[in-house]
Structure formats: C-alpha cells, structure tokens
Amino acid sequence: MDLIINIFNLILYQPLFNALILLYEYLPGHDFGVAVIILTIIIRIILYPLMTQSIRSQKILTELQPRIQEIQKKYKDDKAQQGRAMMELYQKEKFNPFGGCFPLLAQFPILIALYQLFWKGLRVEQTTLLYSFVPNPGAINSTFLGIIDLARSATVKIDNITHFLWPNIILIILVGIIQFIQTKMSYPKTGNIKKDGSQMFQFSGMMQKQMLYFFPVFTIFILWNLPSALGLYWLVTTLFSIAQQYLIYRKPIYAQPK
User: How many domains does the chain have?
Assistant: First the structure.
C-alpha cells in the first residue's frame, strides 16, 4: 500500500502541487483562483484526446438509438436474439459500448490528487515537496478575486457555530447549474427516438429525467463540504466539456440508414 501511495504522490500529487505553486507565483496578482483555473485548463488540454473519445462514444450511442430501439422492439420476446442483433450492430458500426468508460475513469485519480492538494496542499509543511526550480511562496492567500476562500467549504464552524460562506455557496450552486446544462446536452433529442409507448421507452425516459436532475444535485451535495477550489476546478472542467461536446455534436458521425 505504501508503494502505491508513493507512486501516486510521485506521478500525480507532487507534479500538480508544483504546477499550482508555479502558476500562483508567476501569474500577475498572485490570485490562487486564477492559478486553479489555468491548471484546470492545462489538465483538460492534456486529457483532450481521451475526453474526445468519450464524447464521441456518447454521440455515436445517441445516433444509434433509433436502430437500437428497432432491434429491441423486433426481438422483444427473444432476449438472446436481441443481444446478438445488438452486437452485430455494434460490430458493423465499429462501436465499443464501453469505449467511453475508460476516459471517465482516468479522471478519478486526478480528482483524488486535486482533493488532497486543495485539502492539505496549502499547509506550510507541504513546501518540502517543491521541486528545486519552484520558489517557496510561504503563506498562500487562498482567495479568488478577494471574495471566495477556496481553501474552505460552503460552511465553516467557528466556536461550534456554523457560518455560511455565501460566495462559496453561490459558486457551488453555479457548478450545479452548469452540470445540469452539460448533462442535458448528453441526452438524445426526443425527436430522434420513436415514442412507441412501450414500457422500455417509458422506463428509459423516466431514468433519463431522473438522472438529469440527480447529477447536478449530487454534485452540489458532494462539493458542499469540500474545499471550494475543487468546486472551481469542477466548474471550469465542465465548461470545457460543454465547449468540447458542442464542437463534436455539431455534425452527425453516422448517416441515417435509408
């Protein structure tokens, strides 16, 4: 276990920590929030090919929905034949239904590293992890635009009294709204799918509607007790995803079958 932790720190935590401190030191104004935004953009540029693959997989699945629905309707009483027909469709279109999972899973180690970075990386003792060419910033001012304390969560306890940090709360709610927009963009347009009134269609529509609202609420719930720097990272990375998704979704990947 210690070996895994050491490798994780060496490959992810320490490089991200040094990159953040380097940006904080050399960006005009020494604004910690701006440093987080620039670091997020750099991470997304590095992950751009992987995320493009994931978004393309989502789009392909969306465009195949009418044909998938036809197969489900045609073989509704023969699940084995339905499965074979689905696999034939995927093979014909060279589509891997799990192709979009790995790029999403690849982000989790980065999120864990950023969580640790924003949770403990601002402590003075962490400066021992700085590379030789990175200057020691001493005490770090963790505010963003002088308003949001990115080292704190939405609430903070002082003398056993809970105080609500409204700038932080507004940031988290904004993340939830942007998450809602991004999730809505991922769902197929209802005009592309035949409303045949089947139980499967009704169940699918109900699940999509539930997930549409579940993800934003769940995001707010998760970020509520985490350092707001993670919320800022989530906001920027979601905006980046929306822009990337818009570029990919502009044109169809598959021509509709005649």
Answer: 1
AA letter at 192: N
Whether 138 is covered by a domain: the verdict is yes
Residue 121 makes CB contacts below 8 A (sequence gap 6+) with 17, 20
Is there a domain that residue 258 lies in?
Answer: no
CB 252 within 8 A of CB 63: yes
Residue 125 has pLDDT above 90, yes or no: no
Give 3-state DSSP helix, strand, coil % of the chain, rounded to 5.
70, 5, 25
For residues 52 and 244, the answer to whether their CB atoms sit within 8 Å is yes
Q: Is residue 207 part of a domain?
A: yes
Instruction: Supply the pTM of this predicted model.
Output: 0.84
Query: Among candidates 230, 231, 118, which has minimal Cα distance to 173?
Result: 231
Predicted confidence (pLDDT) per residue in 101-111, tens digit = 766 777 788 88
The tokens for 127 are 């400066």
Q: Domain of 217?
A: 2-249
Does residue 170 form part of some domain? yes
Most confident among 63-67, 202-206, 215-219, 235-239 (mean pLDDT): 235-239
